[in-house]
Design goal:
Elements (H helix, E strand, L loop, with lengths): L23 H22 L4 H12 L3 E2 H8 L3 H13 L3 E5 L7 E5 L1 H25 L1 H16 L4
Antiparallel strand pairs: 1-3, 2-3
Helix pairs in contact: 1-5, 2-3, 5-6
Amino acid sequence: MVDRRPPKDPSPDADGLRKTRRSLPIALLRARETVMAGFRPILARHDVTEQQWRVIRVLGEASPRDATDVADHCCILMPSMTRIIRALQDRGLITRARDESDGRRLVLAITPAGRDLLDKVTPHSLDVYRDIAERYGVDRVETLLDMLEDLAALGDR
């Protein structure tokens, strides 16, 4: 594998900031865009947005589930989540109901149609994951995921 990364230059600009090539937020965005480039055509073929797919995936893992919990797991703000819930419900991919013990809580569940969509998209997603693992390395992907979990956990402190 050829290392195509530019040489590391941690020296700051005149204003004290790192050069954008070594900016963590920008690097994370570049990496996200590279990864998502493989998934976007798949989602487009099934008329699902990235955010809608994240909701389907999370509910596919555990359903029913509290809407706030789903939003947190999907990294979606609640105003956006409200629109996503409506769109997915209109398509019959999820259901929503008020929690019987706490009427303020909204509970989401995947429907058979949502599960069917998950089953249709998953093989194509697995192809993208396999391609990334082949090109980047299985161990490196696992290490990266561990490191990103550790970094995200800083927000919990």
